[in-house]
C-alpha cells in the first residue's frame, strides 16, 4: 500500500512538473508550443484514440469517433508482429544454443556466426529485408527474428556451458543418462541464463521492430511506429508522445506478464526468493 | 615570434569580420514544377548566377534544400534549420495553427493548380463510389494533396482514419509512387506536377480530377528570420515577385530553365514533353486569398488533422 502511494506521488509530481515547466517555458517564449506538448493534450489524444465514443467537432457538435480503439488496433498489429517473430526466434534459438554448447564443430561455426550477428544492430536488416520481401509482414517478421535469434543462441550456449560439472557427474553417478540428464539437470541449471537471454532477445526484437515501423510503411497494417511517425508529419507532438507512452506501457506489461512469472519461479527454485 | 603573433591576430580578425559579413539564407523547395520559383532559384545558384543572390547583394549566400513534401519542410522550419521555404498551404497552416501563430508567416503566393487525382487507365475507377477498398497514394501524410484527398473521399461518404478505413490512403514518396502505379499496386495517386504528367505519360494514368484553382504553393518565412532580418525578407519577397512575373512573361525560357533544373535535381533527364504537358495546368501568381486558406483549415479539421482554428490574420501580416 505504501509502495503504491509512493509511486503515485512520484508520477503525479512528474506530470505536474511537466505541466508547469512546459507552461512557463512556452509563456516566456523559450520553447515552441509545437515541439513540447502539454500533458493535457497528450491525455486527450490517448482518450480520443482509445475509449471515447464521441468527439466534439470544432463547432461543438458531438459526432461518432472514427478513431475509437485506434491505439488498441495499432498496438495489436505491432504486438502480433513482435510475438510471432519472437516465438520463432526462441524455438530456433534454444536448440541451436544447446548445439553450439555441446558440439565443438557447431561452436566453431554457428557460435562464431551468432556472436558476429548478435553484435549487428538488427535494424541493419531492414534495408535487405525490404529488398527481399518487399514492404510486407514478412520483412517485419524477418527483422524481429534476426533481433531475437542470436542473443537467445548465445545466452543458451553460455547457460549450458556454465552448468557446474559436479551436477552432471553427481547425476550420472546416480544413474542419470542421456535425455534424462538434459531434461532434469542441464536445462534447469542453465535456465537462469536462458531466461536472461530471452529478456535480452525481447528487448532487441522490440527495438528493431519500432525502428522498422517508423521508417517503413507496411501496406498490410499500421502499427505504433507508423502512428508515431504520422504524428511527426502532422507536427502533432501530442501524438508522438502519446504513442511513446503506449510503447512504454507495452514494455512494462510484457515484463510483468512474460518474464516476471519465470523469474519468480527461478527465484523459488534456486532459493533466492525473498 | 612577435610577427607570427601579429599574423595570427590579423588572420583571426579577418576571418571574424568576414564571417560577420556573410549572411546565409537557408531556403527549402521541392523538385516539382509547382515549385518553379524554387527550381529556378536553386538551379541558377548551382550555375553560379543565382537569381536571388543577384538581388540580395553580395553578402548573402543562399543555400537550397530539397524536400519531398511540406511536412518535412515545416518540421525543418519549426526546428530552426530552415529560414524560408516554398511549401503547400496545408503544412504552412498546420505549422501556423499548431504554433499558436508564433512561428510561420506567408510572404506571398507562388503557384495555383498543377495538382490532380490520377487513376489507372484501365477505367476500373470511373466514379467516386469505385474507390471503396482501393489504394490511393499521396506525397506525405498531412501535405496539401494528402488533406485534399482525405477531405474529398470523406465528402464522397468514405470513412478514413490514419491507419486505414474504407479507402487506403497511403502516403508514399513521389519517386516511389510511379513504379508502384506502373505495376498496379496503387489504384490512384493524388499528387502534383511533374508527377501528374509522368503518371499520365509513363504509366498510362488518367486524370480523374484536377484542382485548377487550388493554391498549390506559397512562400513562407520563419518568424525568427522576420525578427532578425526584416529587410532581407523584404528583398527576397521582391525577388520572388519579380521571378514570378518573369516566369509568366518568358514561357519558353522559363520552361527550358525548369526542365534543366529538374534534370539536375533528379539526376535523370526531364523530357520537354513532360514540362510542356504540365505547364498549362499551372498558374504562377503571387496572390493568396485568405478565404482560400480558411477553406483549407476547414478541410484539415474535417479529416481530423487539426482541431482548433485560430484567426489567420497574423499569418499574412508579414510581421513577426
Overview of the molecule:
The complex is a heterodimer of chains A (274) and B (320). With 274 residues, chain A is an all-alpha fold. Chain A has two domains: 1-36; 70-270, Orthogonal Bundle (MetI-like fold). In chain A, strand 1 and strand 2 form a beta hairpin. Chain A has ten helices and two strands, in the order H-H-E-E-H-H-H-H-H-H-H-H. Chain A has helices spanning 2-27, 39-48, 70-102, 104-118, 126-133, 137-161, 165-173, 178-215, 224-233, 237-270, and strands spanning 54-56, 62-64. Helix content of chain A is 76%, strand content 2%. By secondary structure, chain B is of the alpha/beta class. In chain B, the strands form three sheets. In chain B, strands 2-1-3-12-4-13 form a six-stranded mixed sheet, with helices on both faces. Chain B has a five-stranded mixed sheet with strand order 9-6-10-5-11, sandwiched between helices. The longest helix of chain B has 20 residues, at 2-21.
Brief summary of the model shown:
Chain A is mostly helical and 274 residues long. Chain A contains ten helices and two strands; from the N terminus they run H-H-E-E-H-H-H-H-H-H-H-H.
Write the layout of secondary structure elements.
The complex is a heterodimer of chains A (274) and B (320).
Chain A: H1 2-27, H2 39-48, E1 54-56, E2 62-64, H3 70-102, H4 104-118, H5 126-133, H6 137-161, H7 165-173, H8 178-215, H9 224-233, H10 237-270
Antiparallel strand pairs in A: 1-2
Helix pairs in contact in A: 2-10, 3-4, 3-6, 3-8, 4-6, 5-6, 6-8, 8-9, 8-10, 9-10
Chain B: H1 2-21, E1 23-29, H2 36-46, H3 51-56, E2 60-66, H4 70-78, E3 84-87, H5 89-98, E4 104-113, E5 115-120, E6 135-138, H6 144-155, E7 160-161, E8 164-165, E9 168-171, H7 174-182, E10 188-192, H8 195-203, E11 205-211, E12 215-222, H9 223-228, H10 230-249, H11 251-266, H12 272-278, E13 282-284, H13 290-302
Parallel strand pairs in B: 1-2, 1-3, 6-9, 6-10
Antiparallel strand pairs in B: 3-12, 4-12, 4-13, 5-10, 5-11, 7-8
Helix pairs in contact in B: 2-11, 4-5, 5-13, 6-13, 7-8, 8-12, 10-11
Amino acid at each position: 500500500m505504501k509502495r503504491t502511494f509512493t509511486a503515485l506521488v512520484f508520477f503525479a509530481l512528474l506530470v505536474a512538473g511537466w505541466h508547469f515547466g512546459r507552461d512557463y517555458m512556452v509563456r516566456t517564449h523559450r520553447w515552441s508550443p509545437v515541439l513540447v506538448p502539454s500533458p493535457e493534450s497528450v491525455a486527450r489524444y490517448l482518450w480520443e484514440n482509445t475509449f471515447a465514443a464521441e468527439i466534439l467537432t470544432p463547432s461543438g457538435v458531438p459526432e461518432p469517433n472514427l478513431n475509437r480503439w485506434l491505439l488498441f488496433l495499432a498496438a495489436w498489429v505491432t504486438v502480433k508482429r513482435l510475438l510471432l517473430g519472437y516465438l520463432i526466434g526462441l524455438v530456433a534459438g534454444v536448440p541451436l544454443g544447446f548445439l553450439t554448447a555441446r558440439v565443438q564443430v557447431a561452436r566453431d561455426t554457428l557460435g562464431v556466426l551468432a556472436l558476429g550477428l548478435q553484435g549487428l544492430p538488427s535494424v541493419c536488416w531492414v534495408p535487405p529485408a525490404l529488398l527481399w520481401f518487399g514492404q510486407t509482414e514478412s520483412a517485419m517478421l524477418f527483422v524481429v527474428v534476426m533481433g531475437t535469434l542470436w542473443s537467445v543462441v548465445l545466452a543458451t550456449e553460455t547457460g549450458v556451458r556454465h552448468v557446474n560439472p559436479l551436477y552432471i557427474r553427481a547425476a550420472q553417478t546416480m544413474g542419470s543418462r542421456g535425455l534424462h540428464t538434459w531434461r532434469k539437470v542441464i536445462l534447469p541449471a542453465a535456465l537462469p541464463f536462458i531466461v536472461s537471454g530471452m529478456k535480452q532477445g525481447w528487448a532487441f526484437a522490440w527495438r528493431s521492430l519500432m525502428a522498422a515501423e517508423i521508417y517503413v510503411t507496411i501496406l498490410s497494417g499500421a502499427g505504433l511506429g507508423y502512428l508515431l511517425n504520422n504524428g511527426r508529419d502532422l507536427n502533432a507532438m501530442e501524438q508522438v508522445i502519446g504513442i511513446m507512452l503506449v510503447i512504454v506501457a507495452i514494455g512494462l506489461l510484457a515484463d510483468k506478464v512474460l518474464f516476471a512469472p519465470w523469474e519468480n519461479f527461478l527465484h523459488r527454485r534456486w532459493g533466492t526468493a525473498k | 615570434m612577435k610577427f607570427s603573433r601579429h599574423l595570427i591576430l590579423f588572420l583571426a580578425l579577418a576571418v571574424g569580420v568576414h564571417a560577420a559579413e556573410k549572411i546565409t539564407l537557408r531556403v527549402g523547395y521541392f523538385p516539382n514544377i509547382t515549385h518553379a520559383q524554387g527550381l529556378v532559384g536553386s538551379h541558377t545558384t548551382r550555375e553560379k548566377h543565382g537569381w536571388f543572390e543577384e538581388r540580395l547583394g553580395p553578402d548573402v549566400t543562399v543555400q537550397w534544400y530539397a524536400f519531398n513534401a511540406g511536412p518535412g519542410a515545416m518540421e525543418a522550419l519549426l526546428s530552426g534549420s530552415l529560414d524560408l521555404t516554398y511549401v503547400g498551404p496545408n503544412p504552412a497552416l498546420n505549422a501556423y495553427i499548431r504554433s499558436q501563430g508564433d512561428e510561420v508567416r506567408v510572404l506571398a503566393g507562388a503557384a495555383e493548380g498543377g495538382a490532380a487525382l490520377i487513376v489507372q487507365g484501365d477505367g476500373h475507377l470511373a466514379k467516386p463510389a469505385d474507390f471503396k477498398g482501393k489504394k490511393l497514394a499521396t506525397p506525405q501524410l498531412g501535405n496539401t494533396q494528402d488533406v485534399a484527398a482525405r477531405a474529398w473521399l470523406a465528402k464522397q461518404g468514405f470513412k478514413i482514419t490514419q491507419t486505414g478505413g474504407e479507402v487506403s490512403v497511403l502516403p508514399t514518396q513521389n519517386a516511389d509512387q510511379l513504379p508502384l502505379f506502373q505495376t498496379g499496386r496503387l489504384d490512384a495517386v493524388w499528387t502534383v506536377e511533374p508527377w501528374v504528367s509522368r503518371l499520365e505519360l509513363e504509366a498510362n494514368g488518367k486524370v480523374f480530377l484536377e484542382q485548377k484553382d487550388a493554391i498549390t504553393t506559397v512562400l513562407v518565412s520563419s518568424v525568427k528570420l522576420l525578427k532578425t532580418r526584416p529587410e532581407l525578407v523584404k528583398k527576397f519577397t521582391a525577388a520572388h515577385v519579380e521571378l514570378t512575373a518573369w516566369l509568366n512573361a518568358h514561357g519558353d525560357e522559363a520552361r527550358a530553365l525548369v526542365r534543366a533544373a529538374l534534370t539536375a535535381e533528379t539526376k535523370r533527364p526531364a523530357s520537354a514533353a513532360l514540362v510542356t504537358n504540365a505547364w498549362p495546368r499551372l498558374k504562377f501568381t503571387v496572390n493568396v486569398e485568405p478565404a482560400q486558406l480558411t477553406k483549407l483549415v476547414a478541410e484539415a479539421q474535417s479529416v481530423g488533422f487539426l482541431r482548433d482554428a485560430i484567426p489567420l490574420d497574423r499569418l499574412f501580416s508579414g510581421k513577426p
